[in-house]
Specification:
Blueprint lengths: L1 H7 L3 H6 L6 E7 L2 E12 L8 E9 L6 E9 L5 E10 L2 E10 L2 E8 L2 E8 L4 E3 L9 H6 L5 E7 L4 E10 L6 E7 L3 E5 L5 E6 L4 E5 L3
Parallel strand pairs: 9-10
Antiparallel strand pairs: 1-2, 1-15, 2-3, 3-4, 4-5, 5-6, 6-7, 7-8, 10-11, 11-12, 12-13, 13-14, 14-15
Length: 215
């Protein structure tokens, strides 16, 4: 009963993601073979009219009759700080919901699954980005924080508990279209368009390539 009640309290933005038409589509391949598809929308503003941005994403593996489906919502302040993160996972092990929020130098993560509930407090701060091994539009946050000199970041993967230290180096100035090189625990490159939406992501050493799908 507690799990069902918790699901009813989920963000309306996340619940609506399964119904709305998401504007950008991504093709996910590994070693040249398609493994899944992702769709996302990046828009101005947050819940209750607060300033900032909201990313809503849905990823399916495989794209047809998926055995793994993930719905993610990431809300950030105008300064790109974490305001709210929510990840709903439907897989062979049943549904799981992960919530995270930042509070100064702390990151509070709560995981709720059928029959279990757990909370964690992790080091946070402006250099922490929340990522997932299967929701690649979250790398938009990396592009926003990258600098020409190279910005040191820590990637936290709430679903698996992984932490990764890396440097994001941006070509050109801030804002708009960008190309970013990643070095450290995460190696590769990513590119965004003039609206800040992910166009391409390559993760070296994994064989993973994410590209904008044809309209």
């Amino acid at each position: 009963m507690r799990f069902a009640a918790f699901l009813l309290l989920l963000s309306p933005v996340a619940r609506a993601s399964a119904q709305e038409s998401l504007e950008t589509k991504l093709l996910v391949t590994q070693e040249g073979r398609e493994t899944g598809r992702e769709e996302f929308t990046l828009r101005d503003g947050r819940g209750r009219g607060a300033p900032g941005s909201t990313l809503v994403a849905v990823a399916r593996y495989p794209a047809t009759n998926p055995s793994l489906k993930l719905d993610a919502t990431l809300e950030r302040t105008p300064e790109f700080a974490l305001a709210k993160f929510q990840l709903e996972v439907e897989g062979p092990g049943g549904p799981t919901v992960i919530l995270a929020a930042g509070s100064g130098a702390r990151l509070i993560v709560r995981t709720v699954a059928k029959g279990s509930e757990a909370g964690r407090e992790l080091p946070g701060g402006p250099d922490v980005v929340l990522l997932d091994e299967s929701v690649y539009s979250l790398y938009i946050a990396v592009a926003d924080l990258a600098t020409p000199a190279g910005q040191s970041l820590t990637g936290v993967f709430p679903r698996t508990g992984r932490r990764a230290s890396f440097v994001a180096r941006r070509e050109g100035g801030g804002g708009g279209a960008a190309r970013v090189t990643l070095t450290g625990d995460i190696k590769g490159s990513l590119a965004t368009d003039s609206k800040g939406r992910l166009q391409r992501l390559e993760l070296l050493g994994t064989g993973i390539l994410v590209t904008r799908a044809p309209d």
